[in-house]
Give the backbone structure.
Amino acid sequence: MTDAESRLHCAGCCASTIVSRSGTCSRPPKWFVHQYREHVGAANREQSERAAAAQGQQREMEEMLAVFLVGPVRRVAHYSAVHAIYAALDSGMSEVCRAVAHKGRQPRRSSRLSRFFDFLLDEVKRQTGKRDVSIPADAPIRDFVEAFVRVRHYIAHAMGDVTLLRSATDRTNARAAAELLGLTVSEDGFISMTDERCSGLLSDARNWLAAIVGDVEQALAPR
């Protein structure tokens, strides 16, 4: 293994660890679902029991709070995980780029994670001297990552509420991005996901990184 390959391999391991820690502290993705059900889920059950035991106007208030816990609170937990995975992907891809780059070159600053794909492909071409070289995982993974970035953007700037987006094009793009990632848009217009799909996004991120690192390693390997 060359020095460059060794650096890239270590960076890939580091990147995977960064993503793992973003949502699970290095535990399996199902840990997120377990923790949610243990803590937030318990609060939901307790509130539902209080609502069932209350009478009259008090019952109406308790039922409103129960609905709030089941809906918005769960949504916030999922959105927090999306933000954490986004930050981890950014850090992980930066680590990979640092390992591959020559002479301290780095991707330009941007909120678009696709900049890392462009940088890696350019660097592989630069180092191999081949203009027709490719990273097989680039195209399909880029589509998913761009959809993920778009969903994260809508969560950050519109609170995940598709109805707040300014144009019909943005609303259409939001729904398309959510669908590509296996998410949905609720009847009241919010980007939504199940507990299992939320933890699944973490697995996806780790798999994306592993595929990119593997392809870059192969492309840079001596022939």
Notes: The chain has a mean pLDDT of 78. The CA atoms of residues 12 and 213 lie 6 Å apart. The first strand starts at residue 184 and ends at 185.
